[in-house]
Structure formats: C-alpha cells, structure tokens
Amino acid sequence: MAMFDVSSLSGRVVVVVGHFGSGKTNVSVNLADMLGKINKTYLIDYDNVNPYFRAADAAGTFGSSDVTVVSGEFVNTNVDIPSVSPLVYSALCGADNGHSVIFDVGGDMTGAVSLGFLHDKLVALDPVVLYVFSAFRPLTDSPEAAYQILKEIEASSKLAVTALVNNSNIGAYTTAEDIESTAGYAERLCDLSGLPLLFTSYMTDRAPDVKGEILKINNRTKILF
Prior knowledge:
This protein has helices at 24-35, 87-96, 108-112, 119-124, 143-157, 176-180, 183-193, and strands spanning 2-3, 13-18, 41-46, 67-70, 100-105, 128-133, 163-166, 197-202, 213-216. The relative contact order is 0.20. β6, α5 (143-157) and β7 (163-166) form a beta-alpha-beta unit. The protein contains seven helices and nine strands; from the N terminus they run ββαββαβααβαβααββ.
C-alpha cells in the first residue's frame, strides 16, 4: 500500500467515466484540486445527463489551486438544455501547452456518447481514461456487471479505458473495513478488463489496507441528506 502520486497525471488529459453514482464527479474535482497545486488545470463539466451532481458546483472552492471550471452555458439554470461550452476546445489547446485537463463525464454510455464530438482531438492528446467504479452500487454489485458497463462506455465514447479507480463507499458511514472488503472485487475487475487499478480512493479517517496505491479525497459534491 502506498499513496498515489497525483503528479503522474500532471500535464495530461484525464477523462473520468463510470456508472451513475460511482463518484466520478467527486474524483474529478479532487484530482483537479490536487493538480491545480502543480500547474494550470481545467476542470471540464461534461455531464449532460445528471444536473444535480456537477463539477461546476465546485467553482470558487479551489482556494490556491489554479483551476478553471468549464461548463455549458445553461448549467445550474432553470433551462434544462444540454450544451457544450466552446471553451472546451480552448482547454484542450491548453493541454498542448502542458496544462492539465480533467473531464467529468456523465454516467454510463448515455453520458459518454457526447465524447464522440471531441474524439479526434482527444485521441491526438493520448488521454488517460479512468473508469470509476463502486462495488456498493446496485447495478455494479458484481465485477461482471461493472465490466459490462465499462465495455458499453467504451463503445459509445469510442475511447478505450486505460485504468480503473476503486471508489467504493457508502458515504459518511464508510469504514476502512468496508473499502478493504472490495479488494477482491477490484482484483476480479482488473482480471476481466486487463486493466491496472490506478488507485483506491478513500474518505475515512484511517487509510484502508489494500493492494496497490490509495488516494485520500474529500467529499466535494452536494449532500443529499
């Protein structure tokens, strides 16, 4: 067990995908905050599916981190029209200059399909594509189910996932033992997909004792209750 070195993602385009409710937005916002302490970072709110949990909500909360949040024109308004900001292209041009870019993508294949709009540009930048999963979500309660969703996201986005992130948690009630109990699930998903586990994220007071690297994150999304 070792701490994940976030600087390994510095200067890269990181596309965060996964099942609805897997914690993609929380992972995206935390990564952007950490990378923003290293270099200029763009956080792209690319969720055209779920208007409630949005990366855009984190704007203004990054303190000393150099993070610019890019979101659609109608985000957090009463106008429910999915849109993509033209500033996304500016952010991708920034990646050519060594800036970091984090894409928080909508859930499942429905959210990922809009990535096809940027396919050629993204592929040219050799993105890191992270599949965030939670063993505690109803529709991904088995590695086989999570793998099926991964393949559907790849098909709709036309991007190949490059690594996995274990973000298994049950909110504020999560214990280190809960996370440790998902180690076998994560190992099986790695075997099915042939992909490495980049890190296991945690928000507990005690770090879980699991194989591979871990990353301490904070809850940066809306609280439901």
